[in-house]
Amino acid sequence: MNVHLERWIVAFVGTAWLLSGSRTAFAQQPQNELSAAPQADSPVVPESAPPLTAAQLDQLTAPIALYPDPLLGMILAAATYPLEIVEAGRWLNEGDHASLHGDALDEALAEQNWDRSVKALVAVPQVLRMMDQNIEWTEQLGNAFLAQQGDVMNSIQTLRERATASGQLHSTPQMNVMTEDDEVLIEPADAEVIYVPCYTPVIYGAWPWPQYPPFYFPPPFGYCYPGPYLSFGIGVGVLGPYWGWGRWNWRGHRFYVVPPTRGAPMRPWTHDWGHRRGVPYRDQGTAQRYRAPNGPMGPSSRGEGRLPAAPAGSPYRTHPSSPPRGLPQPMPRPPTGSWRESPGPRSSESRPTGHPSGGRGGDHRPP
Description:
Helix content: 25-40%
Number of strands: 9
Mean pLDDT: 74
Distance between the termini: 68 Å
Low-confidence stretches: 1-40, 294-367
Strand content: 5-15%
Shape: globular
Oligomer: single chain
């Protein structure tokens, strides 16, 4: 073989191998990276992990903070079961599942061993696909909700207030926006129909965390036209058996489960480690809080003591332990003068330990 040709082939193969193993170092949308599941030992999970700051939480919740409260509850609960999100996303793309509706969809879902929050999202395919295709973000969001439920709720309220201050969050024919006890509530205009709002992070005004640009996931082509305002696509009917069981207590920092029996008291939502399916928790403290047996991971509901191997082609990442990151390309800054000033900090209120400033979230907000 020609020596020059042989050297070229070796160099090309070596370069391709290096590129295939490289990772983007800067902040980006969660990667669709397939990592091999551990084959022998469980991954090392730290005893404790530092809480996410307000900047990191705002970055995580920006894509969904303006969603209607019932849909938001399903998203945050389902995010704590990332492997089931991947399975549901794959199931939705198989056969004629995407065309099922109403009773037919209910019957098909009855055969699946997923948490009801995951099943509820099957009826809202654009949301399920967003979570499936950005599974690292989904897992980080779920981990934050498990470890810092109150801080996550504070982050959502703060972002809603920013959108309100920018003049872009208000009632529409698709959803009602109201304020109760200084908390912003968003409810569907029709309890039986959910409209998923489209918007870009520009809707929040000047972003106060340049080191943590907000996540942004463009909607499916043709669904709606996102911009610095709310827009909507076609509404979807909620799936009765799996919908309507969650209620928010924003002031009390609790997400409640509404019992099926009329008049029975509501109880706080509790994470079910069985549906975690062996996915490692962020730290051992979180695992112990939810009483996952056999170590920080807990066995899955199918008898597995570690994370199952991700099927070929799955975007699931076995154990992302890095803190949330931003976009591969931050939202472009509009011309000077077109950004609104960010609203001032909220009234003084208790904040997480170590962050003495007033307002919401995990650390102080810039004025």
